[in-house]
Amino acid sequence: MTIGQGERTSIDMGAGRTLAGRRVLVTRARARHGRLADLLRGAGAAPVLFPTISIAPADDYTALDRALGMTERYDWIIFTSVNTVTYVEERLRAVGRDWAALSPLKMAAVGPKVAEALRGRGVTVAFVPEPYTGAALAAALPLRADEHALLPQADLATPELAEALRARGARVATFVAYRTTLPHHDATALRRMLAMGELDAVTFASPSSAHNLCAVLGDDAAALLATTVIACIGPSTAAAVRAEGLRPMVVASAHTAEGLIEALEDYVMSTTSQDGLSGSSHPTESPTEGPRDAESPLERARDARSAELFAEAQRYIPGGVDSPVRAFKAVGGAPRFIERGAGAHIYDADGNRYVDYVLSYGPLITGHAQPEIVAAIQDAATRGTSYGAPTRLETELARRINAAVPSMELTRFVSSGTEATMSALRVARAYTGRDVIVKVEGGYHGHSDGLLARAGSAATTLGVPDSPGVPAAVAATTVNVPLNNLDALEAALRTYEAAAFILEPVPANMGVVPATPGYLEGARALTEQYGALLVFDEVITGFRVAYGGAQGLYGVTPDLTCLGKIIGGGLPVGAYGGRRDVMSLVAPLGPVYQAGTLSGNPLAMSAGVTMLDTLAKPGVYAYLEDKSRALHEGLLERARRHAIAAYGARVGSIGTLFFTPGPVTDYTGARASDTARYARFFHGMLERGVYLAPAQFEAVFISTAHGDDDVEATLRAADEVFTTL
Ligand SMILES: Cc1ncc(COP(=O)(O)O)c(C=O)c1O
Question: Residues 647-664: pLDDT tens digits?
Fold first, then answer.
């Protein structure tokens, strides 16, 4: 930031002139834009106008969603660019549909590339104009007067196409499929100004201006705007700004351009004496002291330090995080940076304390920094951190695992759950001599290529990549089946010579959605009947739902089991194991190659041994059950009291509150949950010191460190938050 540096160090503190010389970015394209700029000029500031084109927000999918729900009848869908095809596909995926959902519509493509993109997705293209122009399409599309066309709006030319079609008497619905960005050179200039600290403040006069500016700036918008004062015209604009991961410092309550300028002036008045307009640490040369107004927006936000750290992280780390869910994308806003954990609590960089129900997504079943585990790690570290040679610790841990989970006759340690499932499936394929893997739709088993496959266009067809970069050929070796549907499982096993059926015996990655009674037994019988191995991914459930995992709890024995999380006591670990004859294929005993520099790491093994010894003590699982029941029943009871449609599913110390009235028995049901409401619930709880997973489709985890006071505080917070949903 520039205040306090260079020629703009002398600040006129007189009334109405506090903005003298300030460079203030005005981001709105329409009405308020000019007026705000004039008012800023009147206040002595130097407005920098940046027209973010005023279009509907990019997430306005109403028309498309209506088409998907078939509540509205469309006859045509017109694609004007490959980008639009991609964008529509993303939306289909986001709502759990695929191109088949659009098959009742006739497709038109403005040119051969677009047509090719559609055909590559198995879609029939009914019309391509000659020549390949929007005008030709508008003129020649065989659209009857009674037909209704849907036009995903991909660029500024599209409204003209819509108008031309309407001029022919057609009914045309458009939706914004693609954010309009500014010409490249404009965005570059803006980025440079921000990066050089040449802008003192940025004003947002509408929610869409926040949206659009961030679209223009791209992934590092938060980083570029981290040290610039952000001023918003009112609370809804501030909310939109927060949803973009930015931190509003000035929020005008008057909701007028004048109000915005006044609030900005107030802010400048009160901050220049302290640390400059930016809130940066540069000393100013205008040390006029003045007490801070407790009511003003000058109070440092309670997430200010986290916001700074996030901005910095984004300079060097994709999205600022090392695992996507941590970025809060599913709930909006910016993540809290955590400084330390103790027991059931975590503390962020701004000193806020939270009751933690994430527990590193499961490993910390005895809470943060449990003294015995810390001591074990410290002790192990004094003897060295890794040898690349066997240690007795690995045997110690494998023996404990075998005692708790007898089906794991032989166990191989790896460094993550992803490695465990990937390796287990390699062994299953080697053992059966088959390639296809069947998995449950909505089940997550880590991010190896073969497991990042989603369902093809119909039930039990071969999978398609669920992420760019996954080869189609690899995804096509995976078949997804709906949870709790033995007929679908049988159909998949019958149709494909499957090597294995892999599932979380208590699915916890679509939220917790337990297997219905008989499903696991049925899966066991069917896999045997069709010669496939049954692989339980107990990365979450192992030592969590019971000491013996879900297989101990339900009495169903798989051929192979994958573990992770808890068995490393909070250090990176994974394991796979099972029938001796199957695991004997693993090198060096057998021909199936699998290895790891840090596999069986002594720190992780020590932490794991201590963890399992702690969990083997009497009463542990009864305690977890008790706290978990109190929490989940309490949440549901309060939701009911506030007439919030909610459904809770829980197995032992994992559970999920879905914002949907009906029971959730599979992925489709889970996705029916009102995720926008979850996002509001999440933020309300976060503000009240309760840290839930920043995504609906995760579990709420409880540890032995959670006490009645934590549960009670959580329920009190929920009681308040439910009144706001
Ligand atoms: C059931 C399940 N399997 C596998 C994995 C992947 O484990 P990791 O993140 O350690 O690679 C996860 C991660 O959350 C999981 O929940």
Answer: 999 999 999 999 999 899
